[in-house]
Amino acid sequence: MLDARHAISVTERQRFILRVRTMARDVATAYFESRKAEGFPMAPESLRRELLQELLADQGDD
Fold first, then answer.
1. Average pLDDT in the 51-61 region?
2. Euclidean distance between CA atoms 36 and 56, whole angstroms
3. For this chain's UniProt record, which GO biological process terms are given (predicted)?
4. pLDDT at 1 (0 to 100)
5. Rounded mean pLDDT of 17-36?
């Protein structure tokens, strides 16, 4: 919308989109980490076990 109204330049628009993408990624990562810390309490039991096993295996590879 801002681009259609010529309210911001192409460079500013690209920078804005990058900031939004970065913020969205950071929020998603923080949410995942908070759910992981809780043991994925809202996930079905089978999925929860699978996720926790994968995460433990990944930690063992480090």
1. 86
2. 11
3. glycyl-tRNA aminoacylation
4. 57
5. 97
Cα–Cα dist 29/54, whole Å? 17
What is the rounded distance in angstroms from the CA atom of residue 34 to the CA atom of residue 46?
Answer: 19
Domain regions of the chain by residue span: 10-61
Measured CA to CA, the distance from residue 53 to residue 32 in angstroms comes to: 15
**Strand, coil or helix: what is 23?**
helix
**What pLDDT score was predicted for residue 62?**
62
Which has more pLDDT, 4 or 26? Answer: 26
Where residue 14 falls (left for φ over 0; alpha for ψ -120 to 50; beta otherwise) is alpha
| Side-chain-facing half-sphere of 47: CA atoms under 13 Å | 6
